[in-house]
Each structure stands twice: as structure tokens, then as C-alpha cells.
User: Fold this.
Amino acid sequence: MSSPTIATSQKKPFSPGFPKLSVLDRYLATQLMLPFSFGVAAFSSIGVSIGALFELIRKITTANLSFEIAVQVFFLQMPLYIFYALPMSMLLSTLILYSRLSTDSELIALRSAGISAYRLVVPTILAGIVVTGMSFAFNEAIVPMANSRGTELLQEALNEGRVNIVSNIVNPVYETVTFPDGTKTQMLTKLFYAQNTNGKEMNGVTILDLSEPGMQVFVAGQRAVWNNEKSFWDIFDGTSYTYSVDGTRREILKFQKAVVNFSRTPLDLANRKKNWEEMTIAELQDLKAIYDKSGNFKESQTTLLRIQQKTATPFVCLVFALVGATLGMRPNRRSGKGASFAISIIIIFGYYLLAFICDAMGNTSVLSPFVAAWLPTIVGLTLGAGLLVKAAR
Assistant:
């Protein structure tokens, strides 16, 4: 007799990893790649041509800038315009993709199969999140370094290798003063001015000290060097004037070397004379700490605005991905790539116009730095969500 056959169920072996993408997700992601790549190439080329190429050509012809240096500076400025092109390309690619799906009636077929508009935008939103992360990393790791090096290279070439001199360094110090009636206010207590610096010492130094009530101390020296051991400034070849407001005391003293109690902040500020696009978030935070230490509230708030903008700007990729997809889903769209490109330009112009207005309002303290930086992103996401709800009906 033959032994009975025992049926056994075989379980598939467990394979760790991320869930596999569905056919729909892979299809939409693949269709996004080509227009996205085209958008990055097109927008970055237009941007770098307008923003850098024409100026470099002018310097070659009028300032005798060498062609080799111009080429290096051109490629060092390219990352900034690639960063600008990423959100624009996200908008263009999603508009082209979903417009084509609508024109070819593929959206109607997918919706008839029970796939909602919310499900259709999932791949686009995921792509927007990925590009947002790429944009943030690109703007932190590559753009500041490339911009800074390009600026230094250009300055060295035009200055024929001379040391970069920073002129007119001004550093006011404000402190909280309490009056007899208990009221408090921010008042100027010290003022530091230097004609120029080479990054190590300052020339033509003037210091005004108003910290002692009823007294004014005025120190003028030919040069000043920061003493790390004593944490003071060594002022050389100058004159000190001390007098009281009521005129009862007046002293004039000439000196070859004097020690002045003042923070290192002026030299820190001079060494950080960079455009904010040449600085990382960490560098901007250090700069803000310097402004806070010196009591320069206005510059501190402006720097905080730049920090928030550097954090918020990459999320434009997600905003444009959502807006582009929902606009492209509109039924009965009979438009090609040209119309998608035109719509992209209009949306981009509107978004950055709002960002420019918010930036101006943030600089004038009408809006807080956080609101000024994030308001365009919040408005864009709200608009995209509204368009998605409308498309899903």
C-alpha cells in the first residue's frame, strides 16, 4: 500500500526591506524622470546664463579676467542655479505628466478602475519629499562651499592675488538700562569703528565708551590687535579722551600701546563678510550669536530670517509637486508641453513674488522671521490641498 500523501502549506520566506512599489507607482515615477531632468537642465541653464555668464563675459572684456578663471567661476556658480531649478523642474514635470494622462484619457481609465485622485498623487508627493531632501542637502553641503570658493577665486583674480581687505567695520553694543522710575530701555553703551582690516588686525580704530553714567571715553588708535590671552584689544599709537558730561573732568592721554576692554565681535563680523547664500545654517547661527552678543537686534533678526528661509525653501519642491499634479488632473485639458511650461512660469512667478513680499515684511519686522519664511510654503500647500480636493470630486 502506498503511504498517504500529506498536504503541507509552504510559507514564503521572510524578506526584510521596504514594500515593493506597485505597477502604477513605478509607471508614474518613470514618467516623471524625463521631464524632471529636462526641467533641471533648462531652468539651471537659463538661470546661470542670466545670473552669471553675461557678467563673467563682461569681466573678461573689461576687467581682463582670464578665460580659465571665468570657466572655473562659472562652474562653481552652477550649483546655486541647480538648487533654484529643482522646485521649478518638479512643477514642470508633474504638470507635463498629469496633463498627458488627462489628454490621453488615462486618468479617466484609472478613475473608472476605482483609483482615487488622492491615490494618484501619492507617487508625486513621495517624489516631492525625496527632492525636498535632496534640495536641502544640496543647499547645505555644496552650494555654500561652491559660492564661497567662486567669490574668493573671482576676487583674487581681479585683485591680482592681494589680501582681501574689509572696510568700514562698525559694531554697536546695546545694553538694557534701568531708570530710577523702574522703566527699562535698550541704549547704546559702546561703539567700535575701524577703517579696514586684513582679517588679523584693524586699522584706523575708534572706540566710544558710554557705559559709565555721566562719563564719555573716546579712544582713537592707528591699529588694533586682538589679544587672545587677555581677551582685550591692544590699541597702538593713539590718544584717549575722558571727560564728564558736566565738564568737571577732562583727561587727554597719548599712548603707544593701551588695553581696551571690548569683545572680539568686530573682528568676527569682519571675517564673516559673506553673502548669506555662501553660509550654511550652522554658520548663520554662529553669526546670529555674535549679533546677539553685541546687542544688534536688527541684524540678529535678519540673520534669523535667513536661517528660517534656508530651512523652508527646499519645501518648495513638495509644494510645486502637489500643485503641478492637481492642476494637471483637471479634466478636458488639451494642452501640450508648451502650455505646461507657460503655466509653470506663471506659478513660479506668483510664488516667488509672494516670497519676495514676505521677505521684505520680515526685514521690516512686520512679520516675524518664522512667519515670513514659511508663509509662502504654507500658502502653497493649502492651495495644492484645495486643488486636490476639487480634483477628487
User: Anything to note?
Assistant: DSSP finds twelve helices and six strands in the chain. Residues 23-159+306-392 form one domain. The first helix runs from residue 23 to 62.
